[in-house]
Amino acid sequence: MKIAVLVSGRGSNLRALVAATRDGRVPAEVVGVFSDKPACAALAFAREAGIPALARAPKDYADRDAHDDALFTEIARVQPDLIVCAGYLRIIGAAALMRFENRMLNIHPSLLPKYPGLHTHAKALAAGDAEHGASVHSVIPALDAGPVLAQARIPVRPGDDPDALAERLLPREHALLVASVALVAEGRMRLRDDHLLLDGERLQQPLQLDADDRLTGATA
To answer: Is 92 annotated as ligand-binding?
Structure first.
């Protein structure tokens, strides 16, 4: 499977995914890395790893649709089977999503449907949640609203602040993304607009990442 990755920042999830494709845990190849931030660290990592990488800055385009069109035209050139949004911080318009319908995953740092959008760690703390986590979901035009493939959970500890919570969640995010992409790359998980299929059966609840970094759950 050929994977394109969208990034906006330091690229820690990208690093985890590339490592997993190269050591055999994910039967796929990252064939391109794309960004809205020309100076982001994730692009530098990709180039050092020998992966084609480029950015298209939104300020260079008239509007969101024009930027999306330019960026996703470049993505189309690498002919990806799957696009993974790994810390990509822009909302993607419906026209761009239609070009890759049912071929896009996103990792989001909350237990969706809780806290779509930004500042999820602060929101979880403000709400007094006992647990927090991350979700991998199929991308649809509505923000962070596509069917959820899998989740990782961590307890919220007394004294946690948003930075501490984010730091403790990050390694679970990495494991969650790798395990989720592996299911898709192996052909076991198929994406649909309103549901997901695992081994040909409709997924009723998100899979859960266990302590051994394996996804567990059931279909019905």
So the answer is: yes
